[in-house]
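User: Structure please.
Assistant: Input sequence and predicted structure:
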Amino acid sequence: MSYTYKATQKFWKNKNALPENQQKVLKKKFELFKEDPFHPLLRSHTIAKLAADYRHPIFSAVIEGNLRVLFRIDGNVVTTLTVGTHDLYR
């Protein structure tokens, strides 16, 4: 499936607050993400608690270690919601 990508202001704010080394890793992994948000190297998965809270599937992609990107999919539109540590799940 071909996706269109967009990002929330919260994503950009949190991305820009990351240390430079994490921003570089994020940029590299985002190339995989744009090819396929469920690329096996991203280990994307549903966050059940957030999906229940928002009544819509919310997914997490692993960037590195404890760094995650939260996103949702509406038809062919992928929206990156935010980026950060596991604390995002709260």
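DSSP finds three helices and five strands in the chain.
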